[in-house]
């Protein structure tokens, strides 16, 4: 099993920046992909950006050029640097880790962008 601990959400003005962190513990050596998803009120959860154990990233088009995911293997931590934030980025952000075919989720951290 894998446990995920998120931090870094908050309230920021449009155009500002935030960095989310997700520390993994447990069976971390079998994690193939880690990343971030988000869910706004009354909307389905969507992929934001992910990174594989080999460093390959995937992201949704709406964050291209603004968000950057990175992974610190020594700290078993994934980061999401979010720049040029927009009000439409407001959502609960969830860390995800995939272990074989099973997904593990963090508790979520709220990001609110004011206009």
Chain-wise SSE layout:
Layout: E1 2-7, E2 10-13, E3 18-26, E4 31-39, E5 46-52, E6 57-59, E7 67-72, E8 77-82, E9 91-99, E10 102-105, E11 109-114
Provide the gyration radius in Å: 13 Å
Quick check: average pLDDT? 95
Total helical segments: 0
Q: Can you write the helix and strand succession as a string?
A: EEEEEEEEEEE
Bin the helical content: under 10%
Broad shape: globular
Portion in strands: over 45%
**Biggest sheet features:** 7 strands, mixed
Task: Please report the total strand number as a whole number.
Answer: 11
Oligomer: single chain
Spans of at least 5 consecutive residues with low confidence: none
Distance between the termini: 40 Å
Strand pairing plus helix content: what structural class? Answer: mainly beta
Structure, explained:
The protein has 115 residues and is mainly beta. The strands form 2 sheets. Strands 2, 4, 5, 6, 9, 10 and 11 form a 7-stranded mixed β-sheet that branches. Strands 1-3-8-7 form a 4-stranded antiparallel β-sheet, with no helix packed on it. The chain is 0% helix and 60% strand.
